[in-house]
UniProtKB/TrEMBL annotation:
Family: Belongs to the class-I pyridoxal-phosphate-dependent aminotransferase family.
Alphabetically ordered keywords of this record: Aminotransferase, Pyridoxal phosphate, Transferase
Cofactors: pyridoxal 5'-phosphate
One term of GO molecular function: kynurenine-oxoglutarate transaminase activity
GO cellular component: cytoplasm
This protein's name: Methionine aminotransferase
Organism: Flavobacterium gilvum
Domain Aminotransferase class I/classII large: 24-372
Pfam family, one: Aminotran_1_2
InterPro entries in the record: Aminotransferase_I/II_large, Kynurenine-oxoglutarate_AT, PyrdxlP-dep_Trfase, PyrdxlP-dep_Trfase_major, PyrdxlP-dep_Trfase_small
Gene3D superfamilies in UniProt: Aspartate Aminotransferase, domain 1, Type I PLP-dependent aspartate aminotransferase-like (Major domain)
Length: 375
């Protein structure tokens, strides 16, 4: 008997498979197609011949823990204790899965803001807890009245994603204050803040939960080196949590993966001495602006993109098809793969919006835009 009877093949898998079958340009899945920084690959090449191939300590390679501690201090002026508040994970998905499995009990409720990434719900269900899917407004701002009314005596956690996938929106100062006030009214609720795109923001920087002193004692913040350093296949991330929550998270982590890929941890640790992490947002803003300029004369309507490497567009002026069928036709008739936004909603809400990934080289973006301009 299935523990996840309603979980089907991921839309990302479906669209990528169709893209391969039809030799389409794949702007569906969120992975870069350009080379990794040569400084990083040179570090990996060097490390292949060094003694870095055995288990690291369960919580992470100690020099990397110290580097992350310094990174958080530099980025957010927050001091953390690496021995008790920091954990290196096998990607952000494992960090989220481990956290939910560790902290949820049967019948607990977890508030998820839709449209939401698909890795949140499964571990909630596997914990025999209940996901409470609350839609954002149609402009993807939070409806705090609806969110507040979704809290109950069973609410254990609320999950936020900032910057937000798939929409590219970021939470405002007003949003964070409202969230803090809401948590103050519900002292037993913890916050899981998914901030994997934290270093990919544009005109307005995202406000990290690392900076919110009122809720640090009940917040788990998740980050991703895979996203920040264009090495998604490495599956390396980290989470920060207060000691009393981290103790429970580590109990699950040690039996789920025990420790994370050793050579990747050492490589990232050394790379952090070389890279200016603030250059990442500039790099992706150029990508965003380039892709938007290529599409400005198309029939697609460009939605705001404040962060992440995703561009949402409306096709409402082009077709009345549902977004899944439209995306499939984009592949078969025009040779470009995108992701339908309805798949990020519990109820399949269809606003005629689709998502493109612009973390691609300029040649790929130019050819994709050329094809999309024919639609």
């Amino acid at each position: 008997m299935s523990k996840l009877p309603n979980v089907a093949t991921s839309i990302f898998t479906i669209m990528s498979k169709m893209a391969t079958e039809h030799n389409a340009i794949n702007l569906s899945q969120g992975f870069p197609n350009f080379p990794v920084d040569e400084r990083l690959t040179q570090i990996v090449s060097k490390l292949a011949f060094e003694d870095v191939h055995q288990y690291t300590p369960m919580a992470g390679y100690p020099p990397l823990l110290n580097k992350i501690t310094s990174l958080i201090k530099t980025s957010y002026a927050r001091n953390i204790i690496p021995e008790t508040e920091l954990l290196v994970t096998a990607g952000a998905t494992q960090a989220i899965f481990t956290t939910l499995l560790a902290l949820l009990k049967p019948d607990d409720e977890v508030i998820i803001l839709d449209p939401s990434y698909d890795c949140y719900e499964a571990p909630i269900l596997l914990s025999q807890a209940k996901p409470i899917r609350v839609p954002l407004n149609d402009d993807y701002t939070p409806n705090w009245n609806t969110i507040a009314n979704s809290f109950s005596e069973k609410t254990k956690m609320i999950i936020t994603n900032n910057p937000h996938n798939p929409t590219g929106k970021i939470l405002t100062e007003s949003d964070l204050i409202t969230l803090e006030n809401l948590l103050e009214q519900h002292p037993n609720v913890v916050l899981l803040s998914d901030e994997v795109y934290e270093y990919i923001t544009f005109e307005q920087k995202h406000i990290s939960t690392h900076t919110r002193k009122k809720i640090l004692d009940r917040c788990i913040t998740v980050s991703s080196f895979g996203k920040s350093f264009h090495v998604t296949g490495w599956k390396i991330g980290y989470l920060v949590a207060p000691d009393y929550l981290m103790k429970e998270i580590k109990k699950v982590h040690q039996f789920l993966v025990f420790s994370v890929n050793s050579i990747c941890q050492v490589a990232v640790s050394e790379y952090l001495d070389l890279v200016n992490i603030n250059e990442i947002s500039t790099f992706y803003q150029e990508k965003r602006d380039f892709f938007r300029s290529l599409l400005k004369n198309s029939r697609f309507q460009l939605m705001p993109c404040e962060g992440t490497y995703f561009q949402v567009v409306s096709y409402a002026g082009i077709s009345d098809e549902n977004d899944v069928d439209f995306c499939k036709r984009l592949i078969t008739d025009y040779g470009v793969a995108a992701i339908p936004i309805s798949n990020f909603y519990a109820d399949g809400k269809d606003l005629k919006l689709i998502r493109f990934c612009f973390a691609k080289d300029n040649q790929t973006l130019e050819e994709a835009a050329r094809r999309l301009s024919r639609v």
